[in-house]
Amino acid sequence: MSHSVNPGPFADLLFAGLPDFEPGHVWLVGAGPGDRGLMTLHAVNALRQADVIVYDALIDEDSLAFAKPDVETEFAGKRGGRPSPKQNDITLRLIELAKQGKRVLRLKGGDPFIFGRGGEEALALVAADVPFRVVPGITAGIGGLCYAGIPATHRDINQSVTFLTGHDQTGSMPTALDWDAIAKGSQVIVMYMAMKHLESITEKLLKAGRPEDQGAAIVCNATTARQQVLISTLGKIAQEARESDLQPPALVVIGDVVKLHDGLDWLGVHQAGKKLNPDPLG
């Protein structure tokens, strides 16, 4: 696959002083939650220099237009319930390509170290004596909620936020989590990959005393043109998700910050002429 590069008149200024991508190195790069405008300058700098790009399922392929024309690309996306490359095979491929003296860019959705398995890949590179760099990215739990008009924190509502995954390495609902403690101690809960087990998760939170009428929302395909937002309550979110036929990738957020959507849905204003509520908390 080949792509065109249009560096623009300010490229020399933009990229001056940024690191050179050395042959035989691997860069683990976060591409952000979907909108390519949310990629960092370091990420674009990596794309411009890479010889090989090994990219995930949630990467907007338009982002690859930043790469040089002769770049090699390899798809390594993993999606639940579908045939996917095994993590160990992906890691071994990164090592193999680096040992060939190539500049290897591992392009991952969101941030490499937040539910992105970047830590596992980096440790394998260390064991194989392959030099690497990590480029942070905007994680969906921050950027995706922002595009949905739901702040992760608000001074009048919460002073903490908990990020968790809705399934473990086997695909099952996480058993290592203390759901009672999360229900009682987490003011706002942001869940990645929770759609499959949403009904079981909400049941556990409700059983532990979380209020049924507390705000809950689902954000699908966050920050992209396909973004969908469902606003509900903890007691109804699982049922309404089924009725709406919402599909992953999706974030689930639970907490009173969801109430702010009525006042902060800036994207809805542009897309549908929505009138915002200046006092969403009443």
UniProtKB/TrEMBL annotation:
Q: Where is the signal peptide?
A: none
Please provide the record's keywords in A-Z order.
Cobalamin biosynthesis, Methyltransferase, Porphyrin biosynthesis, S-adenosyl-L-methionine, Transferase
Q: Name one GO molecular function term.
A: uroporphyrin-III C-methyltransferase activity
Is Transferase found in the keyword set? yes
Domain named Tetrapyrrole methylase: which ranges? 26-237
| Coiled-coil blocks | none
Q: InterPro entries recorded for this chain?
A: 4pyrrol_Mease (IPR000878), 4pyrrol_Methylase_sf (IPR035996), 4pyrrole_Mease_sub1 (IPR014777), 4pyrrole_Mease_sub2 (IPR014776), CobA/CysG_C (IPR006366), Siro_Cobalamin_biosynth (IPR050161), Uropor_MeTrfase_CS (IPR003043)
Q: Which NCBIfam families match?
A: cobA_cysG_Cterm, PRK06136.1
Describe the family membership recorded for this protein in Swiss-Prot or TrEMBL: Belongs to the precorrin methyltransferase family.
Protein name (Swiss-Prot/TrEMBL): uroporphyrinogen-III C-methyltransferase
- Species annotation: Cohaesibacter gelatinilyticus
